[in-house]
């Protein structure tokens, strides 16, 4: 039976104020959230311009996103052990520094291949930046305060998505797309300074032995499957190679599981999966993000390639998604407390799928206010989904499982996002080839892809139905927070 929901506060009493050092830690981790969210939202809005500059099709630029996501997912399994072994502060500082270096290389890119390689460098830093920061928060806050702490981090972290679309569109129009990476440099340098000053240096008392063979099996499996899916969009891999990579990737993942059952110190202990909320949360994250992970890639393409908007106008439209997300963040905790995790995640997964499908109905003649409303509502449901999924996955982890569970969640998130974008790229390519003689083939391909990823998102509803039925936590009679 799972642990109860977040315990209610005493009636009439406000939440206890955070200690000063904990508050500074939360702001520091928010800087890492800011860096990654700013980079992602600026990059997505600039992809069509980048494709034109590099002589590529805008419908086949998913490799720029997949390279980062896959590198991050591949290295995340080692992040918890590295933090335990070398200390959270030292690892966090090096992670931000590598992210800044990768940004500089991206800004200097002159070809798609060079840009993809630079994104790999960024991914090395990103693989440790957020997981280690989240781990520091998890260890410094009791379980009952963890969702509040994560919500606190997410609100300042929304500055990145708030600035990203508009700033990215403006930079693309008045300068060049290269500048979307240069702006990461001053923020990253400040993050390195702040980490040295504010982050506590913590190491695990007895660092466990690193499972090198298990890491190799797991990493190869993730890379092989992701590259195979990306190859389906026409990156030069023949169908035979795609099939071979898929088979070996699945075999490698199966071998990892059998390996983990027989070694004393596996990368992710099998006992970790005895926690029901973790099992369901991880699978739910995986399937839900197949659709939601593709949305940041597909929406800018819809606005610029499908509807013909300039980058600046598309960036302004994307702000509606961010505003919806910020609004929902304010009452995500209360919603989960009142209705329970299972009900919220089941209903919300259906709503996210419906909103994704609604983008297949857009057209150039559609009133702008209607599209803004679609983006706003989608942002709200998407935000609720992420908040509930992440907290239900980690809420029952304690002690030695905290580091492994945190790394596993981060790995699944990035892997699912990479797979979602790779699948979206393959779908776009396939649908565009089907309607190759249609003058509106790009818009039709984007519409069909939205419908397909919406169907994939519905699979998460079946997964979340396996959560234990939890009793809602009713608000206090005087209206205080529950």
Written description of the protein model:
Helix 12 (295-306) runs antiparallel to helix 13 (311-329). The chain folds into 2 domains: 21-200 and 267-464, Growth Hormone, Chain: A (Up-down Bundle), CATH 1.20.1250.20; 211-266. 75% of the residues lie in helices and 0% in strands. The chain has helices at residues 20-54, 62-86, 88-107, 112-140, 143-157, 159-174, 179-182, 184-198, 212-231, 239-262, 276-292, 295-306, 311-329, 332-339, 341-358, 368-394, 401-434, 441-464. It is built from 18 helices and no strands. The two termini are 22 Å apart.
Features:
single chain; 482 residues; mainly alpha; Growth Hormone, Chain: A; 2 domains; 18 helices; globular; disordered N terminus; disordered C terminus; MFS_trans_sf; cell membrane; EmrB-like
Question: What is the strand and helix layout of this fold?
Answer:
Layout: H1 20-54, H2 62-86, H3 88-107, H4 112-140, H5 143-157, H6 159-174, H7 179-182, H8 184-198, H9 212-231, H10 239-262, H11 276-292, H12 295-306, H13 311-329, H14 332-339, H15 341-358, H16 368-394, H17 401-434, H18 441-464
Helix pairs in contact: 1-4, 1-5, 1-6, 1-8, 1-12, 2-3, 2-4, 2-9, 2-17, 3-4, 3-8, 4-17, 6-13, 9-10, 9-17, 11-16, 11-17, 11-18, 12-13, 12-18, 13-16, 14-15, 15-16, 15-18, 17-18
GO cellular component, one term: plasma membrane
Transmembrane segments: 25-45, 65-84, 91-110, 116-137, 149-167, 179-198, 210-229, 235-259, 280-302, 314-332, 344-363, 408-432, 444-464
Main location: membrane
């Amino acid at each position: 039976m799972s642990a109860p929901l977040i315990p209610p506060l005493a009636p009439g009493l406000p939440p206890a104020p955070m200690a000063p050092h904990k508050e500074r830690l939360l702001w520091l981790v928010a800087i890492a959230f800011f860096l990654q969210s700013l980079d992602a939202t600026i990059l997505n809005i600039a992809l069509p311009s980048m494709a034109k500059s590099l002589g590529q099709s805008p419908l086949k630029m998913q490799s720029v996103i997949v390279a980062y996501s896959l590198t991050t997912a591949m290295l995340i399994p080692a992040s918890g052990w590295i933090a335990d072994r070398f200390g959270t502060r030292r690892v966090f500082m090096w992670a931000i520094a590598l992210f800044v270096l990768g940004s500089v290389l991206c800004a200097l890119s002159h070809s798609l291949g060079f840009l993809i390689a630079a994104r790999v460098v960024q991914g090395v830093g990103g693989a440790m930046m957020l997981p280690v920061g989240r781990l520091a928060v998890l260890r410094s806050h009791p379980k009952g305060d963890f969702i509040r702490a994560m919500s606190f981090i997410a609100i300042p972290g929304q500055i990145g998505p708030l600035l990203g679309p508009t700033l990215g569109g403006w930079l693309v129009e008045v300068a060049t797309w290269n500048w979307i990476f240069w702006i990461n440099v001053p923020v990253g340098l400040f993050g390195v300074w702040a980490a040295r000053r504010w982050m506590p240096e913590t190491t695990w008392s007895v660092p466990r032995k690193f499972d090198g063979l298990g890491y190799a099996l797991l990493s190869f499996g993730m890379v092989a499957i992701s590259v195979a899916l990306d190859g389906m969009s026409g990156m030069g891999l023949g169908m035979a190679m795609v099939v071979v990579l898929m088979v070996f990737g699945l075999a490698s993942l199966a071998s990892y599981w059998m390996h983990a059952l027989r070694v004393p110190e596996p990368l992710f202990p099998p006992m970790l999966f005895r926690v029901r909320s973790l099992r369901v949360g991880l699978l739910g994250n995986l399937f839900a993000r197949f659709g939601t992970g593709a949305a940041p890639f597909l929406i800018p393409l819809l606005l610029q390639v499908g509807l013909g908007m300039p980058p600046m106008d598309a960036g302004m439209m994307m702000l509606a998604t961010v505003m919806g997300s910020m609004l929902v963040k304010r009452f995500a905790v209360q919603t989960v407390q009142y209705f329970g995790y299972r009900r919220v995640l089941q209903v919300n997964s259906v709503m996210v799928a419906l909103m994704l499908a609604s983008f297949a109905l857009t057209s150039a003649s559609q009133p702008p206010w209607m599209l803004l409303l679609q983006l706003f509502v989608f942002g709200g449901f998407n935000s609720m989904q992420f908040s509930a999924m992440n907290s239900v996955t980690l809420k029952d982890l304690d002690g030695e499982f905290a580091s492994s569970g945190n790394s596993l969640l981060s790995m699944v998130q990035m892997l699912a996002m990479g797979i979602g974008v790779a699948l979206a790229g393959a779908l776009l390519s396939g649908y565009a080839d089907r309607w190759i003689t249609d003058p509106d083939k790009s818009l039709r391909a984007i519409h069909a892809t939205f419908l397909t990823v919406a169907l994939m998102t519905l699979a998460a509803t079946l997964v979340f139905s396996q959560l234990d039925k939890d009793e809602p936590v009713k608000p206090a009679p005087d209206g205080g927070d529950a």
